[in-house]
Amino acid sequence: MAKIRPFRGVRPPRDLVTQVASRPYDVLNSEEARSEAEGNPRSLYHIIKPEIDFEPGTDEHDPKVYGKAVENFNAFQQNGWLVQDEKEHYYIYAQTMNGRTQYGIVIAANVADYMEGRIKKHELTRRDKEEDRMKHVRVNNANIEPVFFAFPDNEALQQVIDTVTAGEPEYDFVAPDGFGHHFWVIDSPEMIETVTREFEKIPYLYIADGHHRSAAAALVGHEKAQANPNHKGDEEYNYFLAVAFPASHLNIIDYNRVVKDLNGLTPEEFLNRISENFIVEDKGTEEYRPAALHNFALYLGGRWYSLTAKPGTYNDNDPIGVLDVTISSDLILRDILGITDLRSDKRIDFIGGIRGLGELKRRVDSGEMTMALALYPVSMKQLMDIADSGNIMPPKTTWFEPKLRSGLVIHKLD
């Protein structure tokens, strides 16, 4: 059962929120962060990408950079740009994209739930990325950025969301990327009690996005527990910051592939090889988007093709075998193009569906890449089925949008 709790959030005053809030640390590089924070001393990038306060080219893993994060975090609090709430709360955080709004509950999630598998993951994490975020959590003694969770729909929690969001939001703004962000404080003791109680009935929470942040936060909490001879289990470090969304609110976007070469094959030979396992239809020069599961769009030589996997090439009863990313990785990337390691092979690149099919076409037409493959997006049900079965998704399977804005609320570990 999911053990969560309310917490005393550290957050910006209403009139400063648009200056403080930022994109997450891992969706932009140091130069982009430097440019976005230019002329804005209150930008959260000074805490989550503190290398921007040094000469360009400074290693973001240099000890002095982590030290700068702490210095800036303390300064933000001293200057009143971040202020801790007097009482413990849950919060509601909603995001609007393309006219559609998804509503999540901001919680302190339990470290033991993560360590013991009640918070389920569907991706492998890289130790170097975990270590970087662990250092960031350790030095700041806080979870500066939230993790993105999903949970099975729950009527009582939906009722709380509906009731709270009928009132005035604490924050309400449109970010530079055009997405709306809305934030409410839950301050009714009865509602806080309802949220805690209803989450206790939910057997599992699912990491939608932020596997490295989850691992880092949980491992630091675990370290602190082991280092405390008087550890009781109710200390603040036993919890970490997350925004949990009902699964039905979430939309997974396609995550597409572009490849540099055809592994020595001519386009004709390549299409012949593909037709062994797929029904290939030439769709001409108009953009073609995959229409259903097991249907793919190929862009090659200025033309779009529909590829439909033939029966027998996939296993709908296997949570991994049913995935289009598995079918395309095995039958096209591995068997025809010789790409076996999606994480490290330099011949392949990945493009989130938010960029559109036009970005695939652009990368190929420019001559940088030879072919592009667009996939039908994974469903939340598939993601949860995989996590429940203890399996791990192949790399670069899911793309969630909009990303959580960082800096709306922070969770301190003491």
Number of strands: 21
Biggest sheet features: 9 strands, mixed
Which residues sit in consecutive blocks of at least 5 with pLDDT less than 50?
Answer: none
Count of discrete alpha- or pi-helical segments spanning 4 or more residues: 13
Gyration radius, in Å:
23 Å
Distance between the termini: 24 Å
Average pLDDT rating = 96
What level of helicity do the residues show?
25-40%
Shape: globular
Oligomeric status of the shown chains? single chain
Q: What percentage of the residues does DSSP assign to strands (E)?
A: 15-25%
Would you tell me the structural class of the helices and strands? Answer: alpha+beta
Can you walk through the features of this model?
The chain has 414 residues and is an alpha+beta fold. The chain is 31% helix and 24% strand. The protein contains 13 helices and 21 strands. Strands 1, 4, 5, 6, 8, 9, 10, 11 and 12 form a 9-stranded mixed beta sheet that branches. Helix 4 runs parallel beside helix 6 and helix 6 packs across helix 9. The radius of gyration is 23 Å and the shape is globular. The mean pLDDT is 96.
